[in-house]
Amino acid sequence: MRHSDYSIRTATAADLPGARAVMLDTVYRDFGTGYVPRWHGDVIDLAGAYLEPARHTLLVAVDEGNGAVVATGALDSRGPAHPPNPLHLAERYPSGVTAQLRRVYVRPEHRRRGLAGRLVDELMAFAAADGGYRAVYLHTDPAVTGAEPFWRSLAKVVHDEREDAGGGQGIVHFDVPMG
Questions:
Q1: pTM of the predicted model, to two decimals?
Q2: Quick one: which of 4, 33, 98, 161 could link to 79 by a disulfide (CB 3.0–4.6 Å)?
Q3: Is the Cα dihedral 36, 10, 177, 104 positive or negative?
Q4: Cα separation of 31 and 18, whole Å?
Q5: Distance CA 19, CA 39 (A)
Q6: 143: which residues sit within 8 A by CB, 6+ positions away?
Q7: Is 112 left (phi over 0), alpha (psi -120 to 50) or beta?
Q8: Per residue in 107-160, pLDDT tens?
Q9: CA angle 103, 133, 60 (to 5 degrees)
Q10: How far apart are the C-alpha atoms of 143 and 48, rounded to whole Å?
Q11: How many helices (H) and strands (E) does the chain have?
């Protein structure tokens, strides 16, 4: 499939079932956790989490061949909560002035085609256009194939929990340069 065989757009209500399926498949297959309400509540209420709040967004990548949602990317104005995240991150990335990238997921058969990078570019443009964000933050599970090298190519590690005593949750936290 060529790069041009996908379109990226802001999700509509009609896209939500497909976006939710991409996200739930990812948390079951790649994370191995399945649906955990305290971590994945936004996945169930995508409209309330990303479509309704003015400073939030949900993007989808759609396969032009069949109209299926094959990748997602979201942004909201909530910084990392403490706990479970380290206190210094919650202090460095406060809610309201931090854009947090979330749910940047690509179905395995559509990976390595630039979709995640295109989604992140669009999310960063959304954050910049908002005017109220001072930082862009995200965290990733390095156990997910390709996730850590992808984010390291775009962002700066600000905390790697694997280096903490006891290994923390094993999560890697990133700062994405804003421009």
A1: 0.94
A2: 98
A3: positive
A4: 19
A5: 17
A6: 30, 31, 32, 170
A7: left
A8: 999 999 999 999 999 999 999 999 999 999 999 999 888 999 999 999 999 999
A9: 30
A10: 29
A11: 6, 7
